[in-house]
Design brief:
This protein is α+β, with helices and mostly antiparallel strands. It has 4 helices and 5 strands, in the order βααββββαα. It has a single domain, classed as Hotdog Thioesterase (Thiol Ester Dehydrase, Chain A, Roll), CATH 3.10.129. Helices cover 26% and strands 32% of the residues.
């Protein structure tokens, strides 16, 4: 599949997914999103190229909005799609869907690292994957969100000081 197609995977809510209120725990939603992102890379053929080059993806930031709760034994799908790129990252949208209705939606900011250390610039990732990242710009609000939630580089201090 093309990495910009929508990947749909079917899932079901299991007892271990629930919190004390008997619906899917808010943190479990985020964990459920990991495998579909990896599957998107695998099914598009990018995973093997990235592994051969010693490159792997990481989540740099994510946000999720909840609309309806998923309940025990309920079947749902997770839809995942790459929205676009900037000079440092890839932006992905992922949705929890039941019978065509969105229950929750997440936005994920991903970066790519080298196994030997360091961040892979997007122009290098473009050469590795064959994707024209400039042809997939993202909406300005995603840039604003990315800037708003960013933490300092690991090379700079990040003291925990409350204002």
């Amino acid at each position: 599949m093309d990495p910009h197609d929508v990947l749909t995977v079917s899932r079901r809510v299991w007892p271990g997914d629930l919190d004390e209120l008997r619906h899917v725990n808010n943190g479990v939603y985020l964990s459920m999103l990991d495998l579909p992102r990896t599957e998107l890379l695998q099914r598009s053929g990018l995973w093997s190229r990235m592994r051969a080059a010693g490159v792997y993806p990481v989540v740099a930031a994510q946000t999720i909005a909840y609309r309806k709760s998923l309940q025990l034994w309920q079947r749902f799908t997770i839809e995942s799609r790459v929205l676009g790129y900037d000079d440092r990252a890839v932006f992905i949208e992922q949705r929890f869907v039941v019978d065509g209705e969105v229950y929750a939606r997440a936005y994920v900011l991903g970066r790519f690292l080298r196994r030997t250390g360091g961040v892979v610039p997007m122009d290098e990732l473009a050469r590795l994957t064959g994707i024209d990242v400039a042809g997939w710009p993202v909406d300005e609000w995603l840039h604003e969100w990315s800037r708003g939630v960013a933490l300092p580089s690991t090379r700079r201090p990040a003291p925990s000081v409350w204002a």
